[in-house]
Amino acid sequence: MAHAIDSLWFGHIFGTPEMRDIFSDRSLLQKWMNVEAALARAEAKVGLIPAEAAREITEKAAIQNIDLKFIENEIHVTKHQIIPVIKALEKACSQEVGEYIHWGATTQDIMDTALVLQLKDAYSLIYKDLLKLLEIALRMAYAYRLTIMPGRTNGQHALPTTFGFKVSIWCAEIARHLERLCELRERLLVGQFCGAVGTLASVAPFGMEIRRLMMEDLGLGNCVAPWTTARDNIAEYACALGLITGTLGKIGQEIYNLQRNELGEVHEHSDREQIGSSTMPHKQNPVGSCTLMTLGRIARQNVPLALESMYQEHERTISILQIEWEWLPEISIISHSAIQKAIDVLKGLRINDKKMTQNIDITQKLIMSERIMMHLGKHLGRQKAHDMLHDLVMKAASNGKDFCTVLTEDELVMKYFSKENIYSLLKPEFYIGEAVEMTEKVSLNIAEQFNITL
């Protein structure tokens, strides 16, 4: 095993077949040759090389025509990635045509543009599946918008909320990630043909027209200025994936906590064949949510490397560019795996609404103290009511009494409320604020924005 992404044992955790294929050696080699062929076609159109040469280069620029073993050996000899590819493509072409390959280009023109072709494919996968995840989450939020559960802050019961409202916050976050992806697309999917130091001196005065034709051919944007040393587009992509996997890790952590035996409010789907422990037969581990947390942590560690890639020297330095060869495939593959795992977790998630209702009563109505305080504050003032309720809460907790009993035994409280008032004020279903309305608004607005049917 060279890397967990490619491992027979762990690969299903850290990557997906589709994304691994995009960043495979064979895929990259083909994209290098696609760029060389597009360059030849563009140069033929401006009359810089013969049209027949461009046609033959295009015909031969396919992986089945290339001696892969030759390339592998030449890379070790030359310590260079593109020269062996050029030589292999030359061997596949007739001698006079081979001389026109890579005309006026530099290595980074080919590598950067091929990289963007990889990112174009990766972007499509990530966007498509993130949109699918949003659709699942939106339907869940809307379906459980009335399902009451304890809201928790700092790990403790705070106020009642609804499960749908919780999920709607995830939806809003995922929607913003999709918006970010839309915004960065035109900055990211831009190819490069600039020559050795960006001036296009080797093909002047045709350089900018060659670049325009070349990028139009490849379906990429045309750069306004060389981005050889300007890697903000690549870093922005990494930051977006760091944000996405951060959200997915947070969702995983929430689901992980909610399915603790002590809470039991949600449960991940578990097949009969799934084993939780080699020694404890009863275990059903939250594998999916744990994996989301794992992948989120790994992905975000690549973001600082992406920002490090922005520190370029002069017109180019390979010491910085080599960093991208490692972190960029990794963050793409891991991020897509995280999205796929999140889809699986949410699709199979079982919601235990009865347990949510039971858990609200764990504190014996103390979760409703704010509501009593707000009503009592109309008579005593908010701060006096807060101090008084704090004392009553402490009394209930220390004596093990039901909060309702403590309230109805207090003379000052009963001066302003009847027992019926107290009973009514302690019902959690009447103190969820505008959670339902906000969930509906978020769900319907986002569904309309992304053309999703709830």
Q: Report the uncertain regions.
A: none
Q: Radius of gyration, rounded? A: 30 Å
Would you state the CATH class of the domain at 107-192 and 227-360 and 434-454? Mainly Alpha
- Biggest sheet features: 2 strands, antiparallel
* Known CATH architecture of the domain at 107-192 and 227-360 and 434-454: Up-down Bundle
Q: Summarize the amount of helix as a percent range.
A: 55-70%
The CATH superfamily name of the domain at 107-192 and 227-360 and 434-454 is Fumarase/aspartase (Central domain)
Number of helices: 20
Structural class: mainly alpha
Classify the fold: give the CATH topology of the domain at 107-192 and 227-360 and 434-454: Fumarase C, Chain A, domain 2
What value does the average pLDDT take? 93
How widely separated are the two ends?
Answer: 44 Å
Strand content: under 5%
Q: How does the overall form come out from the CA principal axes?
A: elongated
Q: Would you list the SSEs in sequence order as H and E? A: HHHHHHHHEEHHHEHHEHHHHHHH
User: How many DSSP-defined strands?
Assistant: 4
Spatial strand sequence of the major β-sheet: 1-2
Tell me what the structure shows.
This protein is mainly alpha-helical and 454 residues long. Among the domains are: 107-192 and 227-360 and 434-454, Fumarase/aspartase (Central domain) (Fumarase C, Chain A, domain 2, Up-down Bundle); 366-425, Ribonucleotide Reductase Protein R1, domain 1 (Orthogonal Bundle). Helices cover 65% and strands 4% of the residues. It has 20 helices and 4 strands. The chain has a two-stranded antiparallel sheet. Strands 3-4 form a two-stranded antiparallel sheet. Helix 3 crosses helix 10 (207-218) and helix 15 (369-380) crosses helix 16. The longest helix has 37 residues, at 107-143. It is elongated and about 105 Å long. The two termini are 44 Å apart.
